[in-house]
Design a protein that fits this description.
Blueprint: E1 2-4, E2 9-11, H1 18-37, H2 40-43, H3 50-59, H4 64-75, H5 83-94, H6 96-116, H7 119-128, H8 134-149, H9 155-170
Antiparallel strand pairs: 1-2
Helix pairs in contact: 1-4, 3-4, 6-8, 6-9, 8-9
Amino acid sequence: MHWDEEIQDYVYAERPNKTLIKRELDHIQAVLKRMIALPQGYFDQVPMSDDLRENLVLARRIERAALQRHIRYMSGRTENEDLDLMILTMDRLAHPAVMATEKLHRAEEWRDKLIAGDNNLITELVGLLPGCDVQYLRQLIRNANAEAKKSKPPKSARLLYKYLHDLDEGE
């Protein structure tokens, strides 16, 4: 507390919310515990600093109470780490089936929008998916629309879906 001449009053220092700090530390510790439990093949793919990687390798060899102390120690040293990226990477590694399903749904959504006539999506896909052949894409869209009008089986719509899915897989 000190006297501020401008406002003619005492100014009190604001301290951070202790509960919020504890929640953040608990979250960081939970992420670190997840990382310690990862299989070695997945562990190597998670982006992190060399210092944190060495500490996590050490933590795998430590037992109970010492492990808890070491996790608390590591949680204080994660200021420069991108925890959100680590969590995202761990989720992708832990749930490959979910990621594959998301890709399938994304390809279906793109196909449906393209057949419905969303031309802006074509330019977006060209930038998003390397190797996208615009001419072939437009041909598949035209053929799919023609088949839909003539009530024929959706051969071109299936080809369009397969083409988009293969491009997304190659990404």
